[in-house]
């Protein structure tokens, strides 16, 4: 019997399957991982996740293994160089946003002790366990992503609209939006309840 997955994972090739089966929706509590997903989700704005996922290793190399301390120090010269790098999305505004967001990310770490402590406040420290039956049941935003997005913008972040932030929340397991008949729904739910 075939393994049942969320429909979006079935159409994106091996990288998408691996991402769905191992990462998406699993609660993340590592600041480097948070910075990675924040950077990748903001790069995705207006594009498909499959495109960004295909460039993930390029992003890892171009953005110093997703080290926010290093990215925060990128100069205009480094940004110019990145706009020529075909292994990432070469949108200058998104690259500049990644550098600016790294600086604000560090400010949040200073204020809250970790970005993890900061972001999980928007779901009261516990993942939202949703029960979605079809892809069309999954919203693009939520009241929590609205509040999270608004706060990030107030702090100076860019490319962090509510839709981008909801996708980020799904990626880092702040919400479980695996469909209920997906094999990962039960696995992630079990891990969230531990």
Q: What about the largest sheet?
A: 2 strands, parallel
Given the structure, what is the number of helices?
A: 12
- List low-confidence stretches: none
Overall mean pLDDT stands at 95
Secondary structure: helix percent: 55-70%
Straight-line N-to-C gap: 29 Å
Portion in strands: under 5%
Decide which structural class fits the backbone.
mainly alpha
Shape: globular
Order of SSEs: HHHHHHHHHEHHEH
Tell me the radius of gyration: 16 Å
Order the strands across the largest sheet as they lie in space.
1-2
Describe the structure.
- The protein is mostly helical and 194 residues long.
- Helix content is 58%, strand content 2%.
- It has 12 helices and 2 strands, in the order αααααααααβααβα.
- Strands 1-2 form a two-stranded parallel sheet.
- α3 packs antiparallel against α8 (92-112) and α3 packs across α11 (162-171).
- The model has no long low-confidence stretch (mean pLDDT 95).
């Amino acid at each position: 019997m075939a393994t049942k997955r969320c429909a979006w994972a079935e159409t994106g090739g091996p990288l998408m399957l691996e991402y769905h089966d191992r990462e998406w929706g699993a609660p993340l509590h590592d600041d480097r991982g948070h910075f990675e997903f924040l950077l990748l989700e903001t790069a995705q704005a207006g594009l498909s996740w499959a495109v960004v996922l295909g460039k993930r290793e390029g992003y890892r190399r171009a953005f110093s293994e997703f080290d926010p301390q290093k990215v925060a120090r990128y100069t205009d010269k480094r940004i110019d160089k990145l706009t020529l790098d075909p292994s990432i999305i070469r949108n200058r505004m998104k690259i500049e946003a990644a550098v600016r967001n790294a600086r604000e990310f560090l400010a949040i770490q200073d204020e809250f002790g970790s970005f993890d402590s900061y972001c999980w406040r928007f779901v009261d420290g516990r993942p939202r366990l949703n029960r979605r039956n079809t892809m069309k049941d999954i919203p693009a935003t939520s009241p929590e992503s609205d509040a999270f997005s608004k706060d990030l913008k107030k702090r100076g972040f860019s490319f962090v609209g509510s839709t981008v932030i909801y996708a980020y929340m799904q990626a880092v397991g702040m919400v479980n939006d695996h469909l209920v008949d997906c094999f990962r729904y039960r696995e992630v739910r079990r891990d969230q309840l531990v």
